[in-house]
Amino acid sequence: MIPVCHLDDLPEGESVRVPTEPPIAVFRTEEALYAIDDTCSHQDASLSEGWLEGCLVECPLHAAMFDLRTGQPTCLPARRPVRTHRVSVDDSGFVHVEVAAGAAGAAGTAAAVAAARAVGEGVSA
């Protein structure tokens, strides 16, 4: 689990970029918290800098949209999904992300934990 921020520091309709490898974007919508890979699958743009519309995020570069619940693109130019990650909030209100296996696999998870440690995130593995 990678600590992200306190829930109070992530207002509804906002996002935060987690500097892992690959980076992860955590979004707070009216409904819930969601985490997806931060990089658009169409081109190299940060989805955490995109615009939220319900459970969809629009890429700031070419307007591809992704469903935060599934990671699936909902329109062109993106054709490939982004990974989704499990988000939890502990008793103190701190938000954590559990990096999903997938395209990056276990090596990606290890790299994400190492990257978070490198930036002093206080990772508990």
Summarize the structure.
The chain is built from one helix and nine strands, in the order E-E-E-E-E-E-E-E-E-H. The protein has one helix spanning 105-118; strands at residues 2-6, 15-18, 24-28, 33-37, 51-53, 56-58, 65-67, 84-89, 94-98. A hairpin with a 6-residue loop joins strand 6 (56-58) and strand 7.
Question: How would you describe this protein?
Answer:
With 125 residues, the protein is mostly beta strands. 11% of the residues lie in helices and 31% in strands. The protein has one helix spanning 105-118, and strands spanning 2-6, 15-18, 24-28, 33-37, 51-53, 56-58, 65-67, 84-89, 94-98. The strands form 2 sheets. A 6-stranded antiparallel β-sheet has the order 1-9-8-4-3-2, with no helix packed on it. A 3-stranded antiparallel β-sheet has the order 5-6-7, with no helix packed on it. The chain is globular and about 40 Å long. Mean pLDDT is 86; it is low at 104-125.
